[in-house]
Design a protein that fits this description.
α5 packs antiparallel against α9. About 75% of the residues lie in helices and about 0% in strands.
Length: about 200
C-alpha cells in the first residue's frame, strides 16, 4: 500500500512539474517568440531545473507542439464537444459559430499564441503544419460530416462549405482582434453569426 501511495505521489508531482513547464514555456514563447525562447528560459520561468524540462520534453520543438496540441484539444472540445454534431441545422450551426467566435475572441492568451505561431510560420513551417493538422483539419472534417449528413441543405460541396465557415470565422478574428482592425472594419460578432447562418441555410 505504501508503494502505491508513493507511486501516486510521484505521478502527481510529475504532472505538477509538467504543468509548471508548460505554463513557463507559454509565457516565454509569448514574450520571446519560438526562435527567441530557450530551454534555459523555460526552466527559469517554470521554476524547475533544465534537467527536469528535458526529462519531460526532448526538445523545444516537442514542447511547442505539446502546447499546440493542448490548445487545439481545448478549443475543439469547447466548440464541438466530445461527440458528433447532431440536431437541427439552424440551431446547431448558429450555436457552433457563436461558440467558435467566443472561444477565439475572448481568450487573449490563445490570440497571442496564434500571433506567435503565424509570425514564426515562415521560418518554422513544421509548427504551422502541426497546428493545421491538430485543429483546422479536425474542425473542417467535423463540419463536413455534419453538412454531408443533411441533404436537405442542398450543399453541393460540403468540404468546401466547411472551409468557408472556418475561413470566415478566422478572418473575422484576425481583422477584428489580432490585427487590431475593429475601428477600421467595425462589426458586432452577432451580425456575422446571423449572416453566415442565413447563407448556409439558403436564406436571402
Amino acid at each position: 500500500m505504501k508503494l502505491l501511495k508513493l507511486s501516486e505521489t510521484h505521478t502527481e508531482n510529475s504532472k505538477d512539474k509538467v504543468e509548471q513547464i508548460l505554463q513557463g514555456a507559454m509565457q516565454e514563447f509569448l514574450v520571446h517568440g519560438y526562435a527567441g525562447t530557450s530551454m534555459d528560459r523555460v526552466a527559469a520561468s517554470g521554476g524547475v531545473s533544465k534537467a527536469t524540462v528535458y526529462s519531460h520534453f526532448q526538445d523545444k520543438q516537442g514542447l511547442f507542439k505539446t502546447l499546440i496540441e493542448r490548445l487545439a484539444k481545448e478549443k475543439f472540445q469547447s466548440v464541438f464537444g466530445t461527440e458528433n454534431l447532431v440536431g437541427e441545422p439552424k440551431k446547431v450551426l448558429h450555436e457552433l459559430i457563436v461558440k467558435a467566435l467566443n472561444e477565439m475572441l475572448q481568450d487573449d492568451e490563445y490570440t497571442a499564441f496564434m500571433r506567435v505561431l503565424i509570425g514564426e510560420s515562415g521560418r518554422f513551417p513544421e509548427m504551422a503544419h502541426f497546428y493545421v493538422a491538430s485543429l483546422v483539419k479536425p474542425a473542417v472534417d467535423t463540419l463536413h460530416d455534419y453538412l454531408a449528413s443533411h441533404p436537405e441543405l442542398n450543399i453541393s460541396d460540403p468540404e468546401a462549405t466547411a472551409r468557408i465557415i472556418v475561413g470566415s470565422l478566422v478572418h473575422f478574428v484576425m481583422t477584428q482582434k489580432m490585427m487590431h482592425g475593429s475601428d477600421i472594419l467595425p462589426m458586432e460578432s452577432h451580425r456575422l453569426t446571423d449572416a453566415l447562418t442565413d447563407l448556409l441555410l439558403g436564406v436571402i
